[in-house]
TrEMBL record:
Chief place where the protein resides: endoplasmic reticulum
Pfam families the UniProt entry points to: Sec20
Stated family: Belongs to the SEC20 family.
Protein name from the UniProt record: SEC20 protein
GO cellular component entries: endoplasmic reticulum membrane; SNARE complex
Lineage: Eukaryota, Metazoa, Chordata, Craniata, Vertebrata
Positions in coiled-coil regions: 44-87
GO molecular function, one term: SNAP receptor activity
Residue ranges of the TM segments: 203-220
Endpoints of the signal sequence: none
The gene coding this protein: Bnip1
Length: 228
């Protein structure tokens, strides 16, 4: 291999492959570009720069091929150079097609935006009318809600009054219950006292009866058995 080559053949191959892949990726970006035209211009500038570098590397590889000492190596490198040139031409064709498709898409998008702008004006007019009608409906709804709230407040006041009356009734019933409880306790004490008194009376009656019987027995004994 001649020493006049600017970069080694292997490195030159690697750079050609790298630029080829980068160009393919950039062409795909152009195909997918949604716009605007300024974005497409920036992408095209980047692709042009990559083609410039790729073309320079292919020329360097071609020069290296011509400087080869062995004819077989020379022809092999020249065939590779020819393949790289064909690939570069294919990328250029794909680039042009991607630009054409992107420009058509951007034009269609701009037309749609213009049509949408007109529709938007009509929609704004319709929206204003709808807003006015909605505002009227909202006002009526608010007035209805206000009336309902007023009724609810009145019902709440009546409920509070009913609860207050119920509370007073419960308090009065509680007082009556306390009074009845005192009366019941007093009656219970009286009953207990009466039961005790009844027991005492029974005991006294029993003692009196026993004394009476003892007296009768004593008198009978004296009369019937005086000698005892």
């Amino acid at each position: 291999m001649a020493a006049a080559a600017s970069v080694p053949v292997r490195v030159c191959h690697q750079e050609i492959v790298k630029f080829d892949l980068e160009i393919k990726a950039a062409v795909q970006d152009i195909r997918d570009c949604p716009g605007p035209l300024s974005a497409l211009t920036e992408l095209n500038a980047a692709v042009k720069e990559k083609f410039h570098h790729l073309r320079g590397r292919i020329q360097e590889l071609e020069q290296m091929a011509k400087e080869q000492d062995k004819e077989s190596e020379k022809q092999a490198l020249l065939r590779e150079v020819e393949n790289h040139k064909k690939q570069m031409l294919s990328n250029q064709a794909a680039w042009r097609k991607a630009n054409l498709a992107c420009k058509i898409a951007i034009d269609n998008s701009e037309k749609d935006q213009l049509l949408h702008g007109r529709d938007s004006l009509r929609q704004r007019k319709t929206t204003k009318e709808s807003l006015a009608e909605s505002a009227s409906n909202i006002t009526e709804s608010l007035m209805s809600i206000s009336r309902m709230m007023s009724q609810q407040v009145q019902q709440s006041e009546e409920t509070v009054q009913t609860l207050a009356n119920s509370s007073r009734t419960i308090l009065e019933a509680n007082e009556e219950f306390k009074s009845m409880s005192g009366t019941i306790q007093l009656g219970r004490k009286l009953i207990t006292k009466y039961n005790r008194r009844e027991l005492t009376d029974k005991l006294l009656i029993f003692l009196a009866l026993a004394l009476f019987l003892a007296t009768v027995l004593y008198i009978l004994k004296k009369r019937l058995f005086p000698f005892l």
